[in-house]
Amino acid sequence: MRKCTGCGEMKPKRTLIRVVKAPDEKGDDGAVLKSGAVSLDLTGKKPGRGAYVCKSTECFEKARKARRFERSLSCRIPEEVYEQMSAELSSAEQR
C-alpha cells in the first residue's frame, strides 16, 4: 500500500504511478556533478527516490499545486518537467 501525494488516500502500489528522482551523479571526490532528473516511472522499476500519485490528472494537479512532489523528493522541479509529466499522464490515462 502506498499513499497518493494528491488525494492522500492509501491504495495498492500497482494502481498508482510513481514519480521518481534519479540518483545524483557524483565525482570521485563525492561532490555532486549533476542532480538527478525527475520523471514518471510507469513501470515502477527505475532507480531513485519515489513518490506516488493516482492515475488521474486531478490528483497530479493537486499534488503539483501544493508542491508535494518537491517536498517528497527534496528538490525543485522545473515547470517544463511538470508539463512533460502531465502530458505522459494524459496519454497513460487514455490507454
Short overview:
It is built from 3 helices and 7 strands.
Radius of gyration: 14 Å
Secondary structure: helix percent: 25-40%
Level-2 CATH architecture:
2-Layer Sandwich
The number of helical elements comes to 3
Shape: globular
CATH superfamily: YlxR-like
What is the residue-averaged pLDDT? 92
Describe the structure.
By secondary structure, this protein is of the alpha+beta class. The protein has one domain: YlxR-like (Hypothetical Cytosolic Protein, Chain: A). Helix content is 33%, strand content 26%. It contains 3 helices and 7 strands. Strands 6-3-7 form a 3-stranded antiparallel beta sheet. A hairpin with a 5-residue loop joins strand 4 and strand 5 (32-34). Helix 1 packs antiparallel against helix 3 (79-94). The radius of gyration is 14 Å and the shape is globular. The model has no long low-confidence stretch (mean pLDDT 92).
